[in-house]
Amino acid sequence: MIDQFGRAGFLLVFAVIFPLIPIVASVALGLFKIRPSKPDPIKDSIYECGMVPIGDAQVRYNVRYYVFGLLFVVFDVEAVFLYPWAVAYVGLGVYAFFEALIFMAILFIGYAYAWRKGAMEWL
Questions:
Q1: Which CATH class for the 2-117 domain?
Q2: Is there a contact between 66 and 123 (Cβ–Cβ < 8 Å)?
Q3: Which residue among 28, 84, 92, 122 is least packed, with the fewest CB closer than 10 Å?
Q4: Contact 119, 67 (CB under 8 A)
Q5: Nearest-10 Cα torsion for 77, 79, 83, 86
Q6: DSSP character for 57?
Q7: C-alpha torsion sign, points 53, 54, 58, 61
Q8: pLDDT digit string (tens) for 23-74?
Q9: Whether the predicted model's global pTM rises above the 0.70 cut
């Protein structure tokens, strides 16, 4: 058991140290004046494809974009759940087949409901 936690601890330390290496290197190069530092108001401005930004960056999006994205995630997770079932299909038997049919029927009912409500229509 301690062996498994040791591996997880090593991965945790690696996950923390690995992103810190470029940050520490950048700060060190800045302290030793190796990295150039020429502040300029043009460099500090917001860049939008070479054009001067117009208006506020905070805009409201239509809720249909979020619903469409959420439906994509739901049906993507469906594929993730069905993949292991399809791989182990031969050894599972008839009971697992009917369980998968029930699972897909519930998802199809949800899909039909979303279609009928107009959630699948793009603006």
A1: mainly alpha
A2: no
A3: 122
A4: yes
A5: 130
A6: S
A7: negative
A8: 999 889 888 888 777 888 777 776 666 666 676 767 777 888 888 888 889 8
A9: no
